[in-house]
Amino acid sequence: MAPAAQPLKPLRIQVPGSTSNVGTGFDAFSVALDLPIKISWSPAAKTSLTRKGPLAESTLSIGQDPVLRGLRRASILTGKRIPIGSITVEGSFPPGRGLGASGAGLAAGLLLGNRLLGSPLTTDALLTEAIGLEGHPENATASFLGGAHWSAEKSKGEWLHHGVTLHKNLRFLVVIPPYPLSTKRAREVLPSSVSFARAAAQARRSPLLLDGLRTLNADLIQLGLNDELHVAPRLRLLTGAQSVLDFSLRHGALGATLSGAGSALLVLTQTGRIQNLEMKLARHVKRLWGENGSVLSARVALKGPLISN
Hints:
By secondary structure, the protein is an alpha+beta fold. Helices cover 37% and strands 26% of the residues. α2 packs across α3 (123-134), α3 (123-134) packs antiparallel against α4 (138-145) and α6 runs antiparallel to α7. The longest helix is centred in the middle third of the chain and has 20 residues, at 196-215.
């Protein structure tokens, strides 16, 4: 007689959020941030999902939630049924702000499903699936791998994720507006074509961005953040955003741009300057949006997901 299956134990997984695009790194560059999404799973009589913290703002149906989408995909890939359980998802930032909530949720769901089914799939395989579900590589890559990466497709469905060195003193302030921006709406305003001259100008600036982030050279960072594709049209959708970017630069930021597709704004600074800039930005944000806006401080999350019982 085969031994009785051991009952499954509760699982916890923590996945870093991320910022992406970062100016000229459009749809390629991502940085994992120590702004995590935390998921807990425990055996239950029926499947349920509860959102806590700022993620409770989400208006997605349970069926559309990225964690459950990742779980379902793990089930399809393995040909096995995911054990029924109760899931709690808690985030340190609200959804729709360009901080990789979807990518982190997909990563968590895929990893959780894989663990529940005995870990038959490799991390590389799961990351490739997450990129396919997301439609672009950057946020999922940051959540799976931690650190900073520049992603490029080598062939259909095969990706190279090149690690990017960032200065150890690089720090971020993330300004959270009181409103989200959907990825669909953010994509709709992008230009359908770009002139040769604009494309060439964009290509010239990307290496400057990476060298600036490695050396904390403000001139290089600001040139590298000067994007020809996505920043300007999206800023027009975001009330008060340009004011925050201009204010940050006037008060000593190394650079400032959108976080991902927005609506959050990414302010680059460094150790020794972040506290003063954070206080000034918090006052400016309060004048703009009252108590509904916020400023989060962040650093690079060097490690990817953590899974424990």
